[in-house]
Amino acid sequence: MSKKLTISSIKKSKGNTPLVMITAYDALFSKLVSDSADMILVGDSLNMSFAGKSDTISATLEQMIYHTNAVCAGAPESFVICDMPFGTYVDAQSALLNSIQVFQQTQADCVKVEGGEDKAHIVKHLTDNGIAVCGHIGLLPQSVRSEGGYKVKGKTLEEKEQLLRDAKAIEEAGAFCMVIEGVKADVAKEVASSVSIPVIGIGAGVDVDGQVLVFSDMLGLFEEFTPKFVKKYMDGATLVRYAVGKYADEVSNREFPKEEHTY
């Protein structure tokens, strides 16, 4: 990526080359992905990938700010999105206060908020007060407990119509783009066509305006489970285990360090 994207350039990408979004949580990996990613999402999925939790719900604002600062340090020329964690936008005023904290304490370019029609008034309050917002509709990871699991959306006419209303409401509230997760591909295509802002898919087929994957999923580092929508671009866990095992063998056999590694 030669030049950092802006909200204007992201919005203008609608209907052109699909946007590449990658979720990362630290300076090391954000630097590695920054050349290829149009946007880096600091996702509350770090609660699962990094903290070993079963879902994202216990992620805190302090955690998100810490990791967003790390990502911004590693990829200063990237457009960075900070996930607002569960419980930080239950009403418009708390959402604004917490988003202001993110903006004041990090270099994040925007925040991401889960929800459709029901959260549109919150998104509008944020955008009216200078907070750039990326929406998130469809399967909502922060609602996993209330919904009894991760459930694909768009299977019924009622769900499709709700998704169309959700997308329109978030667009009208001032969001500059949105993520659509876990939605039947034909429905996601229709949703993307119904709004003028980019719709970034994850588990939502190819006919949207971009894609997002978590770096530890796509690199094969996270082994607990692999969602159907994830493609592993390398077997990272096997490579890491081999390298660490090789190091351990060389230490045990006094083969490391050699003279070139010694002062």
What topology emerges from the helices and strands here?
Layout: H1 7-12, E1 19-23, H2 27-33, E2 39-42, H3 46-49, H4 61-74, E3 79-83, H5 92-105, E4 110-114, H6 120-128, E5 133-138, H7 144-147, H8 157-172, E6 177-181, H9 185-194, E7 199-202, E8 210-214, H10 215-218, H11 236-252
Parallel strand pairs: 1-2, 1-8, 2-3, 3-4, 4-5, 5-6, 6-7, 7-8
Structure description:
The structure is a single chain. This protein has helices at about 5-10, 25-35, 45-50, 60-75, 90-105, 120-130, 145, 155-170, 185-195, 215-220, 235-250, and strands at about 20-25, 40, 80-85, 110-115, 135-140, 175-180, 200, 210-215. It has about 260 residues and is an alpha/beta fold. It folds into two domains: about 5-230, Alpha-Beta Barrel (TIM Barrel), CATH 3.20.20; about 235-263, no CATH class. Helix 2 (about 25-35) links the parallel strand 1 and strand 2. The protein is globular. The N and C termini lie far apart (about 40 Å). The model has no long low-confidence stretch (mean pLDDT about 95).
> Superfamily at the CATH H level of the largest domain?
Phosphoenolpyruvate-binding domains
Give a short account of the largest sheet.
8 strands, parallel, barrel
What percentage of residues falls in helices of 4 or more residues?
A: 25-40%
- Which topology of the largest domain does CATH recognise? TIM Barrel
What share of the residues does DSSP label as strand, in percent?
5-15%
Mean pLDDT: 96
Head-to-tail CA distance between termini: 39 Å
* Number of helices, where a helix is a run of at least 4 consecutive DSSP H or I residues: 11
The arrangement of helices and strands along the chain is: HEHEHHEHEHEHHEHEEHH
Structural class: alpha/beta
**CATH hierarchy, class of the largest domain:** Alpha Beta
The main sheet orders its strands as 1-2-3-4-5-6-7-8
CATH architecture of the largest domain: Alpha-Beta Barrel
How many structurally independent domains? 2
EC number: 2.1.2.11
Active site: 181
Protein name: 3-methyl-2-oxobutanoate hydroxymethyltransferase
Cofactor: Mg(2+)
